[in-house]
Amino acid sequence: MRRRWVNPIERQLPRHAGSAVARVSAVIRMPVSPALSGIRMNTLDGMDDRYGTDVLAAGWRERGTKKSAQVPAEIDLVVEVAVDGFCGAITKIEGQNVELEDFKGRKRLFPLGPGFMIDGEPVALVRQKAQPRGRRRTASGSFVADDTRARVALPSRILVEGKHDAQLVEKVWGADLRAEGVAVEFLEGVDLLDELLAAEPPSRERRYGVLVDHLVPGSKEQRIADAVARGRHGAHVRIVGHPFVDVWQCVKPASLGIRAWPVVPRGTDWKTGICRGLGWPAEEQADIARAWQHILSRVTTFRDVEPELLGRVEELIDFVTEPAQAGPALPGGAE
Question: Is the pTM of this model over 0.85?
Answer without folding.
Answer: no
